[in-house]
Amino acid sequence: MERNSSETHDDSLTGKNFRKIMLVIFSAMIILAAISIVPMMTSGAEREAIIRIPAKATEKNLNDTLSKYFGDSYAEKVVKLMKLRHIDLSSRHGAYLIPEGTSPFRAMRKLGRGAQSPIKLTINGFRGLPLMADRMSRKIDSSSETLLRQFTDPTALSSYNLTPEQALALFLDDTYEVYWTTTPQELMKKIGDHYDSVWNTERRKKAEALGLTPEEVITIASIVDEETNKKDEKGRVGRLYINRLHKGMRLQADPTVRFALQDFTIKRVKGEHLNVDSPYNTYRVTGLPPGPIRTTSVETIDLILNSTPSEDLYMCAREDFSGYHNFATNYGDHVQNALRYQHALDMKGIN
What is the structure's pLDDT at 33? Predict the structure, then answer.
């Protein structure tokens, strides 16, 4: 049976209307999607921050951290994108640098890939392992107690020929690049590898020529660093202590007394300070203290290893307070140097 022309025409109009309606709906959906997606692609973080995701993190953990640095709106966008991508937060343990201007989409991609940002950890003149462990624990995801246990572990130290008393010798002043998730064992190995590279065959031979082991050189270097910050004097100060050591004389180094007392505010070491009963008090104990009194640098080590031989046995700070020392080969000259310095202290009222 044939359909009349009017029915055909109506069907054609109905089909055209349907296509128009669907086109309008589809366009609306695209516009709505664009309205939703564009801010996630273009809105940027208002500041730079490092986002730390703890082990077995939850969506709330991430949202709270992002909100803290970038606000609730930014955090909501990143979390929503991560949910859409089905990213497992519990496996994204790490620290991630989000630069200023980073869009939520780019932040999601960085967090989703697990692309951690390295952290620079600097060792510089720490006067003890507890303080160093505490400062490091603020940089990586380990407690100071856990780090301290690792750093003083006899088995771990034995591979570097060090005892727990000498442990500070392992940690040479430098900047080390690590991740927030670096374990105490991994951190110690990284620092230990640097120690081994420093103490190569050439430096070990130089230490042996001075009658010293690497750890003894470091202990002397740690005292030298406390005695003077004058680079052009460190080698001479180190050689003086080596001379006294070889002659069986007590080092009588003021920095070791401050370390024994754990009072680094003392400017003028007096007789009352010298009585402290400690293996680190080199006025009472012959030889080197049990270990370094601070971390030291490769630069100071080399200045001592390459120092010029001398007959120096005594030194005293110069009376001009320049930071340099007067050196002497005999006690009589040393007494005269000391009297001038003590007079200068008295004149300035330094107790």
Answer: 43
- Bridge partners, residue 94, by sequence: 53
**Closest listed residue to residue 219, CA positions, set 312, 298, 289:** 289
Residue pLDDT, tens place only, 117-139: 899 999 999 999 999 999 999 99
**CA-closest candidate to residue 62, choices 89, 44, 100:** 89
Average pLDDT over residues 226-254: 96
pLDDT per residue as tens digits for the range 12-65: 546 666 566 665 555 444 444 444 444 445 567 888 999 898 888 888 888 999
How far apart CA 167 and CA 156 sit, in angstroms, is: 10
> Which ranges constitute the DSSP H helices of 138-230?
144-151, 154-158, 184-198, 201-209, 214-227
Rg over CA atoms, the chain? 34
Per-residue confidence (pLDDT) for residue 26, from 0 to 100: 55
Taking a C-beta distance cutoff of 8 angstroms, is the pair 104, 124 a contact?
Answer: no
DSSP, res 323 = S
Closest CA to 337 of 117, 320, 232: 320
Largest distance between two CA atoms of the chain: 136
Write the CB contacts of 82 (distance below 8 Å, at least 6 apart in sequence). 59, 62, 89, 108, 111, 112
Q: What pLDDT, on the 0 to 100 scale, is given for residue 15?
A: 60
Instruction: Yes or no: say if 255 and 227 are a contact pair by the CB < 8 Å rule.
Output: yes
Q: d(Cα 291, Cα 289) in Å, to the nearest integer?
A: 5
